[in-house]
Amino acid sequence: MFNHNVFNTTNRFRYNFIHACRRSIQTKAVKRPPLGFAFDIDGVLMGGLEPLPKARNALRILNGDNPLKIKIPYILLTNGGGHTEYERAHKLSSRLDVQISPSQIVQAHTILKDYVDQYADKAILCLGGNGDTMRRVAESYGFRKAYTTTDVLAWNSSIWPFIQVSESELAFAKPVDFSRTPISAIFVFHDPRNWGVDVQIMCDVLQSGGLLEGPYIDKAQRKNNIKVVFCNPDLLWKSDFPRPRLGQGAFKASFQAVYKTLTGSEYPYVQFGKPTKATYDYASGTLHNLLDVSYGPGELPQMYMIGDNPESDIAGANAAGWSSVLVYTGVYDPTTGPPTNIPTHETRDVEEAVK
Ligand code: G3P
Ligand code: MG
């Protein structure tokens, strides 16, 4: 005799059993990873425009080719810049044969998105990069009055009489009358290409209170209310040249030396970029958001920063309470003695670091 109760009990058991399995599989599948990575770019993944030997393998391991068989979350945290995060992700994905999304990219100037509310409709000077790339990046963040030093030269080239603005540069210059357009802030987004022009124009803007060609304000009356922000403190960085190259930090030192010689004191400024706390907090938030999107709200896992520069990558990671791994493929040369900031680990290259 067919016993419904048994059938029902059996089905209810089967039903519960299936769902229990499904739940555990789901939980198993989407368990929040216990660790997260932040990769520096220059000197760790890239040597100039080319990937460093072990870079692709390292990212492949994080994309699932690992003993845990799970995707391990990571961001790229660089003091470099010069592109939108979308362009940078696109370029790196093709060079490193791995899909990297713009939301995984934290460049030196990404943090300037936090200034858009304050400066969206104010005239700002964006320094660094080639041509008008920094204007395009600034506009992609929401700054609607972003000008470059090429715009200033196109407006009045005698402001720096030593160079001729080329036709191609004039082509992307924005026509502006800077004698009527007060500059409210100077953002050094990326490494300036022509230090002479940029130092001259910064000194003109800051001594005249924002109006180029305007009279210089007497030192005693000068309020220094024009915001100056540097996005990358690196004195040196590693490209594909055998020895490290001067970075934005060297440009800042030059500007301040000239400004102090002119006015008697340095100009107050805000510094972003590794090792600053602001940039590591921004990076933590970026990876935290990525994880919450994939796994629902939860804690930031144990973070590993892999870098080549003891002053920026390692110092910042240590201060943020992250684990830090110093690789020998960039700025730091182990034959020159112990690093200025002691990492949690030291490895030959990025693949060894990930492993
Ligand atoms: O200009 C970029 C350089 O200062 C360092 O870049 O990727 O090593 O932080 P990165
Ligand atoms: Mg580096």
Automatic annotation (TrEMBL):
Q: Name one GO biological process term.
A: glycerophospholipid biosynthetic process
The protein's GO terms of the molecular function aspect are: hydrolase activity
GO CC annotations on file: mitochondrion
Q: Does the keyword Hydrolase apply?
A: yes
One Pfam family hit: Hydrolase_like
| Chain intervals with Basic and acidic residues compositional bias | 345-355
Q: Which domain of life is it from?
A: Eukaryota
SUPFAM superfamilies assigned: HAD-like (SSF56784)
Annotated region Disordered: the residues are: 336-355
Q: Which UniProt keywords apply?
A: Hydrolase
- Which PANTHER family does the UniProt entry name for this protein? CAT EYE SYNDROME CRITICAL REGION PROTEIN 5, CDP-DIACYLGLYCEROL--GLYCEROL-3-PHOSPHATE 3-PHOSPHATIDYLTRANSFERASE-RELATED
This protein's name: HAD hydrolase
Organism of origin: Lentinula aciculospora
